[in-house]
Amino acid sequence: MTNQTANRPASAAGPAAGTGGGLGGRAPAFAGTRATVAGTLATIVSLLVLAVIGKATDSLLLIAPLAATAMIICASPALPPAQPRNVLLGQIGSAVIGYAAAAVAGHSLWTASVAAGLSVALMGVLRAVHAPAAATAVLVVVQHPAPARFLLLLAAGSVLLILVGLLASRIGAIGKYPTYWW
Predict the structure, then answer these.
(1) Most buried by CB count within 10 Å: which residue of 68, 130, 166, 176?
(2) pLDDT tens digit string along 61-92?
(3) Which residues of 131-160 are buried (b: 16+ CB within 10 A; e: fewer)?
């Protein structure tokens, strides 16, 4: 067996010896303690906002896909999946796909799987990729919440997370957010 990286520059071959790259070394650098703590706290605050408002209105706003959305907004605010367009179109579009799939094929894990896959296609067409939204399609098929109420709560929860991200950015707790609105 030959060393296939021996003739490539160090940047193409991975990290230099002794840089801690053990398992390939292609992971991004550690963001730093301050950024990690700030992103963690901003995520917690975002989710507490959803929980408190949900409790006060007797509505379930804190759902798993929105927890993942909060993490993306607060820990990676500059990435495309964190941007308001991607969050809103991704979440709402995927929920609609979930309802449509369930209407056609019923409420099963098979249908949920297809709905999640179709939501990826829709997000691609809309240029609004937001990975947690695929889970929203699954949730809709498996749990079949009332459509009008769920879509309203999903939109409200998404907007609240965007607003918390905007506030967190303005006070310097996270990086610039959003980098674009639509």
Answers:
(1) 130
(2) 999 999 999 999 999 999 999 999 999 999 99
(3) bbbbbbbbbbbeeebeeeebbebbebbbeb
